[in-house]
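Narrative summary of target 7.
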Amino acid sequence: SDLFSPDGKYHKQIRIEENATGFSYEKLFQEYLTEIVSEVWVEDPYIRHVHQASRCLLYNFLRFCEMLVKGPCKVKTIHLLTSYDEGGGRSQQLSGLEEIQQSLRNYGVTLNIAFSSSIHDREIRFNNGWVIKIGRGLDYFKKPQGRFSIGYCDFDLRPCHETTVDVFHTKHTKKM
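Modeled conformation, tokenized:
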């Protein structure tokens, strides 16, 4: 639903139902990733699940970066603010992020990584003014049934966890 908050900001809410499909990152973000987007901020605390949380989150972030590299935007800088893996996965987390950073460099994209122990908000900001807050952060996809099940590769076919997506525009104000 499209609505305006009391301070005149544009606000749209998308509800992703349990087991819904058709919500790949491309589908969710495409209308906000205009050609003028050159800088992206991702705040996503480190989410821990039993099933190899670090790999799960790293792959989601990598998939998000792939979408940015494919365009139509010309992203030059990505800022990631996250928290350290509390468990034994910290070195895996760091080496994974460094590998993504190195790989992005081949595409002319700089990845700045910062860590915070107090971060709890999950939001993605683009320098064209759009702010997207996803209740579950980038980690809203369910684990696939198996490695050869539909939806393993194509995330439009991957069932989702229930979550809410709030979209804001920072520069949007109502005309008086």
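The chain has a mean pLDDT of 87.
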